[in-house]
Design a protein that fits this description.
The chain is of the alpha+beta class. Helix content is 24%, strand content 19%. It contains 2 helices and 5 strands, in the order H-E-E-E-H-E-E. A 5-stranded antiparallel sheet has the order 1-2-3-5-4, with helices on one face. A hairpin with a 3-residue loop joins strand 1 and strand 2. It is globular and about 50 Å long. The chain starts with a helix and ends in a 24-residue tail after the last strand. Bound molecules: adenosine monophosphate and zinc ion. Adenosine monophosphate (AMP) is lined by residues 5, 27-29, 37, 83, 89-92.
């Protein structure tokens, strides 16, 4: 068995969406209700090293995951993000895209969204 948690999930079929090249499953430590990961079937740490076909397949599964999240949770927004490399915060070395549903009032001021990866530069509007 693989020593990669995501490969193990894929091998065991613990997924909520799948195609020949990509899968989706719930994030085990969700930022918000419905937080979903869209993951390449092939073990490759670097999202940008995936083939064009694999990247496109991730997006097709992302759209399906989005429809499922809308039906189950009715969020009012989304953050969609990919961490590429440890310096960008990637902690699982198997390429994946985060779909993070957002809900009105879930934080005091949501302005900036993914700009908060570097908090001191998030507030460009001040
Ligand atoms: P990243 O930091 O972009 O590599 O994101 C890794 C994500 O994987 C985090 O949001 C974790 O909560 C999630 N995660 C870690 N281990 C598992 C697992 N075994 N199954 C599902 N999600 C996981
Ligand atoms: Zn893997």
């Amino acid at each position: 068995m693989s020593d990669c948690d995501f490969c193990v999930r894929i091998e065991q079929g613990e997924v909520i969406e799948q195609s020949t090249l990509a899968v989706a499953f719930a994030d085990a430590f969700p930022i918000s209700p419905g937080h979903t990961l869209v993951v390449s079937k092939r073990h490759e740490p670097d999202f940008f090293a995936l083939s064009d076909m694999e990247q496109a397949a991730l997006w097709v599964i992302a759209l399906r995951a989005r429809d499922r999240i809308m039906a189950d949770h009715a969020p009012t927004g989304f953050n969609v993000a990919i961490n590429v490399g440890a310096d960008a915060g990637q902690t699982v070395d198997h390429a994946h895209l985060h779909i993070v549903p957002r809900y009105a009032g879930d934080v005091d001021d949501p302005r900036g969204g993914v700009r908060w990866v570097i908090p001191e530069h998030a507030r460009y509007w001040d």
